[in-house]
Specification:
Blueprint: H1 7-13, H2 15-30, H3 37-62, H4 70-86, H5 91-116, H6 120-139, E1 144-145, H7 150-160, E2 162-163, E3 166-167, H8 168-186, H9 188-198, H10 200-205, H11 210-236, E4 238-239, H12 247-257, H13 269-288, H14 293-318
Antiparallel strand pairs: 1-4, 2-3
Helix pairs in contact: 2-13, 3-8, 3-9, 3-11, 3-12, 3-13, 4-5, 4-6, 4-11, 5-6, 5-11, 7-11, 8-9, 9-11, 12-13
Length: about 325
């Protein structure tokens, strides 16, 4: 017996995608240049960093947690990577070391949350503050240039290069998306992440090692933040001590816009990617319209509020 198509359910389940399509259609009517290949690739390049951070944030929020330290980890990872590149460290060593540092910083927050019972908001707020302090100490408040030699030139390609006409950061974001999608949908870790977010006590009784999963989840968030820091540093050819400020807000916004519940246990990584694209398209559209950056913040906040309200309504109708 076939199930009848429920248009209302379809719309409620695909609000992020429908919103993205409507937004792109509206902007293309305002500016014919919006749908040019160059502009679309620019949007994807600009979105890639936030998308990578947001995918890590999705793991955290699915467990009913939050990670406010991602921007600070991005900045510290970028500073460490830039100094290693400037010291002519082999590229692969610099990249792997930076990713390990990011994962370790994330795991430290996860350990505080999992083993000491500190709320995620407080633990990662402390992490955000302390790591930002580490950035300023490490850089002495000044940018760190990657230099101008073979390793530095190769490093630049990570953030500014192309593969078959597609920006490398976009390719990296695509690979990260596929990896996260697979983990959340086809691995035991993914099932545990959803189980913990749905009901942590029940997951514990079912034999899930909740503490270990939380540490892994925050380590993933930290590693992906470090990856974003690598890309940003490579593109700028320097590490800025102020890099990553308020990036945690854009990442959380992308996750929420994508339909992931802040209460945990419900959401999709595809939604997060769409949410990041919505923010990228919105930023690009407001720039095309020559809207002041101050008003851009207001517009972004309004869109996020709308997403949260719609999320609340969809949960209410699903009960």
């Amino acid at each position: 017996m076939t199930r009848s198509f429920d248009f209302r359910t379809f719309v409620m389940e695909n609000i992020p995608l429908i919103g993205l399509i409507v937004l792109m259609a509206a902007v293309s009517l305002y500016s014919p240049n919006f749908l040019t290949v160059d502009n679309l690739l620019n949007i994807l390049r600009q979105t890639s960093i936030n998308a990578i951070i947001a995918m890590g944030m999705t793991f955290v929020i699915l467990t009913a947690g939050i990670d406010l330290s991602v921007g600070s980890i991005l900045a510290f990872a970028g500073a460490v990577c830039a100094s290693m590149i400037a010291a002519d460290t082999p590229l692969i060593v610099a990249l792997l070391t930076t990713l390990v540092i990011g994962a370790a910083l994330g795991a430290a927050s996860g350990s505080i949350i999992a083993f000491f019972g500190v709320q995620a908001f407080i633990a990662t707020l402390v992490g955000m503050t302390m790591v930002r302090g580490l950035v300023l100490v490490y850089t002495d408040g000044r940018p760190i240039s990657t230099g101008d030699f073979d390793v530095a030139n190769s490093f630049y390609e990570v953030g500014g290069g192309y593969i078959a006409g597609i920006p490398i950061p976009v390719v990296i974001a695509g690979v990260v998306f596929l990896a996260c999608w697979y983990v959340l949908n086809y691995t035991r870790l993914g099932r545990y992440v959803y189980a913990i977010g749905g009901n942590e006590q029940v997951a514990q009784l079912a034999g899930v090692n909740v503490s270990r999963v939380k540490v892994i989840v925050y380590a993933i968030s930290g590693a992906l933040s470090a990856l974003a820091g690598i890309i940003l540093t490579a593109r700028l050819e320097s590490a800025q001590p102020t890099a990553g400020l308020a990036y945690e807000l854009d990442a959380i916004a992308a996750v929420v816009l994508g339909g992931t519940s802040l209460a945990g246990g419900r959401g999709r990584i595809t939604g997060t990617l769409i949410g990041a694209l919505i923010i990228g398209v919105l930023n690009n559209a407001l720039n095309i319209m020559d809207v002041s950056s101050y008003y851009q913040m207001i517009a972004k906040g309004a869109v996020i509020l709308l997403a949260v309200v719609l999320d609340g309504r969809s949960k209410a109708t699903s009960k």
